[in-house]
Design a protein that fits this description.
It is a single chain. With 280 residues, the protein is of the alpha+beta class. It contains 7 helices and 8 strands, in the order αββββαβαββαβααα. The strands form 2 sheets. Strands 1-2-5-3-4 form a 5-stranded mixed barrel. A 3-stranded mixed beta sheet has the order 6-7-8, sandwiched between helices. The radius of gyration is 22 Å and the shape is flat. The two termini are 24 Å apart.
Length: 280
């Protein structure tokens, strides 16, 4: 979000040899200006990342080297620790291998540096346990990811055939193969509890790995699938929300929106998350 896209500078007046250095130096200049502006706001207590947040002076700034990442796997957050020896090797848009507890996932760097440190401070984050960036992804790592994606696609028709075989009322939402292939996750929705023991055995015998079936809610389904809301923008849950807040009709009442209740439901048929954005 805060990495400046200067692709518009690429025109006929700039030679191909000068393009990378021109874009990199311009991005560095913009980033330094942004950090300076943020530091001015921090002196007045209010943060600029979220207009409704205030930074308490008692919360220290986390001085660890942390990168903001994007991952389709099962990381418990959008931030990862970076080892000091990797700080000059990874940059935004690079793919990295991340260790999360006893498993490994592949992720893409979104931001790294001072902006991430200040952004986390604005969110009140400090000292929590984070996944660790182990190394930058190599060509063979990307080839493994391609194989995982291929096996995920192959698992879709097999799963649907299997639930019909065992007469299970389940809706498949998403499939994820861990980078190290230790587990294969199936995310599904259902009206109630499902006895999927025979299904799990069938899947394990086919894919030769540990199988984990996870039942998720409709809001989690929208977050994993993604899409465009009635506002014309990407779903908030899919683009930037890391956790769900409880949304009630009281939020609509306080904002005098009861007259348009029919328009306040999202694609998940729950009240829209954006009702909580301006309530304070």
């Amino acid at each position: 979000m805060y990495h400046i896209d200067l692709s518009f500078l690429k025109n006929h007046s700039v030679s191909s040899a000068e393009e990378p250095s021109e874009e990199k130096s311009s991005n560095n200049l913009y980033e330094s200006l942004i950090v300076g502006k943020i530091n001015q706001h921090l002196c007045n207590k209010s943060g600029c990342f979220f207009c409704y947040s205030e930074i308490e002076q008692t919360i220290p700034i986390d001085e660890r080297i942390i990168a903001e990442v994007e991952c389709n796997g099962l990381l418990n957050c959008n931030y990862c620790l970076v080892q000091p020896e990797l700080i000059n090797q990874i940059f935004p848009e690079d793919f990295v291998i991340v260790k999360n507890e006893d498993s490994f996932e592949i992720a893409q760097i979104k931001l790294i540096g001072e902006i991430v440190r200040l952004k986390r401070h604005a969110q009140g984050l400090y000292g929590e346990d984070l996944p660790l960036v182990v190394r930058k992804a190599a060509a063979e790592d990307l080839e493994r990811v391609r194989k995982n994606l291929h096996d995920e696609e192959r698992a879709v028709p097999f799963f649907r055939t299997a639930i019909n075989k065992f007469n299970l009322n389940m809706k498949l939402v998403d499939i994820h193969f861990q980078f190290d292939r230790k587990k294969l996750f199936f995310f599904y929705t259902a009206d109630g509890r499902i006895d999927f023991r025979e299904l799990a055995k069938e899947l394990a015998s086919e894919f030769k790995t540990r199988i984990e079936l996870r039942q998720i809610g409709v809001r989690d389904e929208a977050k994993r699938i993604g899409g465009v809301g009635t506002c014309g923008r990407e779903y908030c849950c899919n683009s930037f929300l890391s956790s769900f807040r409880r949304i009630t009709t009281h939020l609509a009442t306080d904002q005098n929106l009861l007259s348009s209740m029919g328009k306040l439901s999202g694609p998940c048929n729950k009240l829209k998350c954006c009702l909580s954005f301006e309530i304070e």
